[in-house]
Design brief:
The strands form two sheets. Strands 1-2-3-9-4-7 form a six-stranded antiparallel beta sheet, covered by helices on one side. It has a three-stranded antiparallel beta sheet with strand order 6-5-8, with no helix packed on it. The longest helix has 17 residues. It is α+β, with helices and mostly antiparallel strands. The protein is elongated. Helices cover about 25% and strands about 25% of the residues. It folds into two domains: about 70 residues, 434 Repressor (Amino-terminal Domain); about 120 residues, Jelly Rolls. It contains five helices and nine strands.
C-alpha cells in the first residue's frame, strides 16, 4: 500500500504541475478537499476508486494516468500503441444542436483522444448570424459531404467549397461555415485536432454554450 500511495502522490503532483494548477484549483475542479489532496501528494493517503474517478473526471485525464510508472510523460496520447478503436454506425453519436450548426460527435466512447471527429450540418446562411467567429485550440480538417459551403476566416477572403472539396485550417484563427446555396443545409465532416488534455470536452462545452443562445422553448430549424 505504501508503494501505491507513493505512486499516486507522485502522479497527482506531476499531473497537477503539467496542468499548471494549485491544490485549491484541483479541489474546485474535483470536489475533493485540499487537505485530502495534500495528503495524497505527500504519500500519506490513498484514494478509493470513487474518489479516483472524481479526480480523473475533474482533471480530464485517464484514470490509469495516476498509476503510470513515469507520471512525468507529458501526454498519454504520445505513448506506445494503445490498440484502441471505435466504430460509429449510421446516426450514432452525441448530437448537439445550436442556432447555426448541428454537431454530431462520433466515437465519443474514446476519451482523451487527439482527434475529435464531428459530422456538422450547417444551417447558417449569412455571416451576420455569427455574433463572433469561432476559435479554439488546435487545427482542423473539413470535408464537404453535401452541398456547397462558404468558409469565413479571420485572415483570408471567404472561400467556397463544393461536395468532395476540403480545407485544413488553424482553429485558433476565427472561422465560421455557411451553407452557400440550395434549400438543403450543407453537411461536412470536421476533424479537430489538439494534443491538449480534454480537447473533446472543451469543444463540447463550446458547442453547448452556443446551444444556450437558443431561447427557452425555441426549436432549431430542421434540415
Amino acid at each position: 500500500m505504501s508503494t501505491r500511495k507513493a505512486m499516486l502522490g507522485q502522479a497527482l503532483r506531476a499531473i497537477r504541475r503539467r496542468l499548471d494548477l494549485t491544490l485549491t484549483e484541483v479541489a474546485a475542479r474535483t470536489g475533493i478537499a485540499v487537505s485530502t489532496l495534500s495528503k495524497v501528494e505527500n504519500s500519506q493517503l490513498s484514494l478509493t476508486y470513487d474518489k479516483l474517478v472524481q479526480l480523473s473526471e475533474g482533471l480530464e485525464v485517464d484514470i490509469s494516468a495516476f498509476f503510470e510508472t513515469d507520471p512525468t510523460v507529458p501526454d498519454r496520447l504520445h505513448q506506445a500503441v494503445t490498440a484502441r478503436r471505435s466504430i460509429a454506425r449510421k446516426n450514432d453519436g452525441l448530437l448537439v444542436q445550436t442556432p447555426n450548426y448541428d454537431y454530431l460527435y462520433v466515437c465519443t466512447e474514446l476519451t482523451h483522444k487527439a482527434m475529435v471527429p464531428i459530422i456538422t450540418t450547417i444551417r447558417a446562411r449569412s455571416i451576420v448570424e455569427f455574433p463572433t467567429l469561432s476559435r479554439h485550440a488546435g487545427e482542423e480538417f473539413l470535408y464537404v459531404l453535401r452541398g456547397r459551403i462558404m468558409v469565413h476566416t479571420e485572415y483570408y477572403e471567404p472561400a467556397e467549397l463544393g461536395t468532395g472539396e476540403s480545407m485544413y485550417l488553424d482553429s485558433t484563427m476565427g472561422h465560421a461555415f455557411l451553407t452557400a446555396m440550395g434549400p438543403k443545409s450543407a453537411q461536412i465532416i470536421n476533424v479537430c485536432h489538439s494534443p491538449n488534455v480534454g480537447h473533446f470536452r472543451s469543444l463540447l462545452d463550446l458547442a453547448r454554450a452556443q446551444a444556450g443562445e437558443l431561447l427557452d422553448g425555441e426549436k432549431p430549424a430542421t434540415t
